[in-house]
Task: inverse folding
């Protein structure tokens, strides 16, 4: 079983369109268009699962770079979630706002240690 990533898709592409696109290369177990949680709109990429690895390789070779809906598709083998880099920004569950307990690029500790310069009054 091979999972394929399909990127740079038109936002109007449906799961039925994906099935029709991949069926000529072999059996498709599942096709899932990824949608935005809040809006429900397609995010422009999908995952397709094919049980036969040879058929999946043929689909990658045949569809990668193919223009559909005015966009050239990017089709390759999907990587597991743990192999992808951590998302940038946001709170990743760490103790402070910058995502971790260590001193990172923008930390208040850096400013506390620096000698403060006197400021001009603001009137």
Result:
């Amino acid at each position: 079983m091979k999972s394929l990533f399909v990127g740079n898709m038109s936002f109007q592409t449906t799961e039925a369109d994906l099935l029709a696109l991949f069926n000529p290369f072999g059996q498709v177990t599942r096709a899932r268009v990824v949608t935005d949680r809040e809006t429900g709109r397609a995010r422009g990429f999908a995952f397709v699962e094919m049980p036969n690895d040879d058929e999946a390789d043929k689909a990658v070779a045949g569809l990668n770079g193919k223009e559909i809906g005015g966009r050239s598709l990017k089709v390759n083998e999907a990587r597991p979630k743990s192999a992808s880099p951590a998302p940038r920004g946001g709170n990743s569950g760490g103790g402070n706002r910058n995502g971790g307990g260590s001193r990172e690029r923008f930390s208040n500790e850096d400013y506390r240690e620096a000698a403060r310069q006197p400021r001009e009054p603001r009137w």
Remarks:
- The chain has a mean pLDDT of 82.
- DSSP finds three helices and six strands in the chain.
- Strands lie at 2-7, 30-35, 42-50, 67-68, 71-72, 74-77.
